[in-house]
Amino acid sequence: MSPRGLALAPPAKNVVVYRNGDPFFPGRKFVVNQRRFLTFEAFLNEVTGSIHAPLAVRNLYTPRHGRRVAELGDLQDGCQYVAAGFEKFKRLESWEYFPTGTIPSFYQSIVDSLFPTPPCPSTFHSSRNTGSSHALGWFYYSVFRNGDLLSPPFLLPLSKSTPLQWDTLLATLTEKADLSSGAVNKLCRLDGTQVSGGEELVNGDYYVAVGNEEYKRLPYFELLVPRDPAYKTLWYV
């Protein structure tokens, strides 16, 4: 290849990719260049294996606005993206897609509005972080959507200092779960037994949000939670 041809070759791009809707996943770094990835599909195939996606990755989105990336040329050096299959983009609180220690100051107001005493973001990325005074005021639960094996569990933080109203909890679950069947009417354990009150919730456990339909006994944990032990049990606070 001539020196002129080398000069015309586009520079490599460094990007970080997250799993759709997964606040637990710390992201994977990729170096994207024409020599390694000839097509956008080849890059998506690499992403699928590297992030251990439950299904093939077919779409990339920007984490802040959910804009779809159509081709390799659309990737921007130093930017972050969210990988998804054919399911819709899962909009988390934007700061959850940023790795520990890199929350932009712009998002601090969002965190403050969501949590009067915000949980320490570093607890979202380590299995044992007991040093955070912020985290000590919260319980954390992970919730799957009934019958949905495409979407990772979403995080449900509840303040220890605020009395839990079950109707309010179900309303919050309805908003966060966005079930195709409509409102969340009950919360079940992974074995299908129904939780009847807040006193039965166990900090750090996994649950399934269910609407009017029957509970669907599926391998939610096995298929949607990373196998790395560092990310299986997250909430020891």
UniProtKB/TrEMBL annotation:
<protein>
    <submittedName>
        <fullName>DCD2B protein</fullName>
    </submittedName>
</protein>
<dbReference type="InterPro" id="IPR003533">
    <property type="entry name" value="Doublecortin_dom"/>
</dbReference>
<dbReference type="GO" id="GO:0005815">
    <property type="term" value="C:microtubule organizing center"/>
</dbReference>
<keyword id="KW-0677">Repeat</keyword>
<dbReference type="GO" id="GO:0005874">
    <property type="term" value="C:microtubule"/>
</dbReference>
<feature type="domain" description="Doublecortin">
    <location>
        <begin position="13"/>
        <end position="95"/>
    </location>
</feature>
<dbReference type="InterPro" id="IPR036572">
    <property type="entry name" value="Doublecortin_dom_sf"/>
</dbReference>
<dbReference type="Pfam" id="PF03607">
    <property type="entry name" value="DCX"/>
</dbReference>
<dbReference type="GO" id="GO:0035556">
    <property type="term" value="P:intracellular signal transduction"/>
</dbReference>
<feature type="domain" description="Doublecortin">
    <location>
        <begin position="139"/>
        <end position="221"/>
    </location>
</feature>
